[in-house]
Amino acid sequence: MSWTDIARNGRILIVDDAMENIQVLNQALEAEHDVLFAMNGARAIDIAHNQRPDVILLDAMMPDMDGYAVCQALRTSSVTSNIPIIFVTSLFSPEDETRALDAGAADFITKPVNAAVVRARVRTQLTVKRQSDVLRELTLTDGLTGVSNRRGFDEALEREWRRSARAGTPLSLLLIDIDFFKRYNDEYGHQAGDTCLQEVAAAMRRAAARPQDVVARYGGEEFAVLLTDGPPGAETVARKLIEQVDLLAIPHAKSDAKPFVSVSIGIAAQVPEGPDGAGELIRRADAQLYRAKAQGRNRYCM
Ligand code: GH3
Ligand code: MG
Ligand code: MG
Ligand code: MG
């Protein structure tokens, strides 16, 4: 995206209980953005979670759930908390304004709205949102390998754990550790070790390449792969991981497992029950990794 395009082609959600208000805002925005609508708070929260708009225009006064309550709900969910919200309302006392800011509003527009003002305010928030998206992405990415870092992994695990618990579907965790990596560094040097980590990370991405697969650098020379699969799917990915690392064919003269770089993998899979318990999944995968090491490395255990 070029710099001049950063304030265009956003996904904008308009929330208002009156159709004529939605139409006015839509007319102001539809030429330069993708516009979505909701006519009540519950629907707005639903769309915000599923379609991830870049900016939300929110009517303060609505029956049932008003704008302040919608704003608060969006702020408390990690999926929607970073979406800027512009309040749109006819009466703005200092109290209303304070209340909206307390609820987490980014900006205000007063009714009756002016189309040029709406466009300008939306462009500003869209720019801020896109810049913060880039920064956020950076804070969750490992600089050496380009996969998620530990923080990104922790967020993904919490999110996927809750999602799988709600859906009643399985979640699998693979912990992957490079075999005799200390000896590799000693033999070939730390820089070669870094290159090896990059190549192994790329191999993991090829083995776990579906959009919902999460690949992360969990620690120094340890990786984690999170899958929305049960045991058979997890085992398939583990086999692919070992195969992709084999294909790298990186010589490792000091390994007792084989004369090439190899990995050991511990797998844990379960259908999550309740919001907590992700720590137990990690502990189980780690115990299986320990077994894979003890059984001779270059293998997976579950
Ligand atoms: P095992 O087969 O039991 O896993 O043996 P190991 O030598 O791989 O295990 P250990 O945990 O003793 O050693 C991990 C090594 O990984 C030690 C450390 O120097 C190296 N390491 C960790 N992070 C990095 C990194 O970012 N770059 C490089 N080059 N090496 C790293
Ligand atoms: Mg209204
Ligand atoms: Mg290790
Ligand atoms: Mg190791």
UniProtKB/TrEMBL annotation:
It catalyses: 2 GTP = 3',3'-c-di-GMP + 2 diphosphate. It is an enzyme of class 2 (transferase). One of its GO terms (molecular function) is diguanylate cyclase activity. The keyword Nucleotide-binding does not apply. Residues 11-126 form the Response regulatory domain. One of its GO terms (biological process) is phosphorelay signal transduction system. PROSITE patterns: GGDEF (PS50887), RESPONSE_REGULATORY (PS50110). The modification 4-aspartylphosphate is found at D59. Keywords: Phosphoprotein. Coiled coil: none annotated. This is diguanylate cyclase.
